[in-house]
Structure formats: C-alpha cells, structure tokens
Amino acid sequence: MTGLGITITSVTVLVLLAEFLRHRHAPLAGYGWLGLMTLGLAEWLVFRGFQPVTIYFTPIAWTAYLLLSDAAVLAIRGHSRLHDQPRQFARIALFSIPLWLVFETYNLRLGNWTYIGLPRNWAWAMFGYGWSFATITPGIFETADLVEAFGWFKPGDSLKFSPAAECGMVVSGALCLLVPLLLPQQIARYFFVLVWLGFVFLLDPINHRLNRPSILADLAAGRRSRFYSLLIAGWVCGWLWEFWNYWAAAKWHYIFPMFQKWKIFEMPAPGYLGFLPFALECFAMYVTAEWVLGLREARKTASNCSTPT
C-alpha cells in the first residue's frame, strides 16, 4: 500500500504545482526557494540516515513547506500571511501547540496513536513536539490559502440555518466530544472519529453567533471558497503528514483497533477521511481561541488573507 500512498501524494502535489504555474503572476519569493531547497535537502539526508535530520524530519519538512506554500500564495495574489502579517503568522503557530494538545489529551484515554523513535533526552523530545505541533494549524491555513487562490470555487446561493438548527449543531458537537469520554475505554477507542467532528459542530455555530469568522456565516453569504478550500487543505496536509512521517525516524504510529491491515504509510486507509473535518476544526478552534483571549485582530487573522469577513 506504500506505492498507492506515494502515487496519491504525488498526484496531489502535481495538481497543486500545475495550478500554481497556471495562476502565478510573479516569481517565487526568495524564502519560497529556501523552503524548496530545504525540503529537498532534508529528504536527501533522511534517505541517507543522517541525524538529527532523521529525528526532526517532520518539523523540518513542514517548516520548509510553510515557506514554500506562503511564497506560492504571494506569487499568485501579491500578498500572503507570512509576508504581510508575520506577527500574526507567529501567533497562529504559537496557538497551534495548545490546540493540538487538546487532541493529545483525548488520545491519552482513547489510545489511537503513539510516538516512536523520539530523542531519549526529555528536553530535546519536548522541543521536537513543540516544533511539530506549531506547524499544524499554519499548514492547514497556508494550504487553504493556496487552494483558494486558484479560484476554483465561485459564490453560490445563500444557505442559512435557523437558530434552532444551530443550537442542535452545538448540542451534537458537545455530545460528540463527551461520548468518547463517558463510554468504557475499550469501547471508546472505536469512537475517536467523533472527536474529529465535535469541535466543528460545537464551535462554528458559536463563532457565528459571536459575529466571528465562521463557515456558517460564509454559507449564509453565499461564499463557498473557505469551506471547500479547508476541506481540500485537510486532504493535502493529511497525505503530506503521513508521507513525511513514514520516512522519519521519530514518528507517530497508529494503534487504534480498526483497519490495521489496510494501512497506507502508517495510517489505515479510512483514517484519511478524518483529515477533512480536522481542517475545519483547526479553523473553528483557532477563531474561538482568539475570541477567548480577546484579541482584537481575530477576525483578520483567522480569515483567509483575501476573503472579506
């Protein structure tokens, strides 16, 4: 199944490359070339077993990808997150760590993945964790920006949900997040999928009510681009996460009690579908986190750089 994974990942990357070449209006910025060269060098060193690159390959690859993808957005639109708003970009990376730790906390009980090959030194292991987790939300956002820059999705009819329907979403989201905690542990392990859905249904309607950026507000205004771009970003990032993780010395290994014979890289094949709602969760959780902290620029930061909110 590794060959299938390489094929799907390669096709996904080639589509992004073709669309970038078709839509770009300016050369790739210097930091984009730095990201591309860093990524190529890191992969070359990994296949030669060069440490510490083999141990820190995942965060190295994702840092390089962030530079490359942001430069690609800049070349198409003339503005991008990292180029135009570096402080806010740093904040997204910083917030990404505790937001991902929410899922790590669930995993302590549900036991869906574990980490292997980590540095024996505690401080270096924590450094690797922090660096890796800091790239998750920026990776989703940058990829969504790139996909949206291609202009694939046009405005459509308004899609509004009643207040009662939105309340139902909130209740459903809360139940999705509570059920895995309330069920017996051996049964709950089969229900991690609810966690990948829960925060979307719980938080997006709340963000909408608070007049924060939300998918529901986009749909009500007839905008589809953010919703679809985030879903595609989840697909793209999911394959890249698993592809780069597979070759790293320090990596995650899935141990959940289903589909272990159907693995593509380290991930059982159905698990790739979970990356789609996960991207929506990253967006909803980030918007909520900025609201909780009372940050004035939350609307601008969480929004796609070119999409008005």
Structural write-up:
This protein has 309 residues and is mainly alpha-helical. It has one domain (2-302). The chain contains 14 helices and 4 strands. It has helices at 2-23, 30-46, 57-77, 81-84, 86-110, 122-134, 136-149, 163-182, 185-188, 192-209, 215-220, 225-247, 275-292, 298-302, and strands spanning 113-116, 251-254, 263-264, 267-268. A hairpin with a 2-residue loop joins strand 3 (263-264) and strand 4. Helix 2 runs antiparallel to helix 3 (57-77), helix 3 runs antiparallel to helix 12 and helix 10 (192-209) packs across helix 13 (275-292). It is globular and about 60 Å long. The termini are far apart. The model is unreliable at 297-309 (pLDDT under 50).
Order of helices and strands: HHHHHEHHHHHHHEEEHH
Category by helix and strand content: mainly alpha
Please bin the fraction of helical residues.
55-70%
Distance between the termini: 42 Å
Q: For the residues shown, what is the average pLDDT?
A: 93
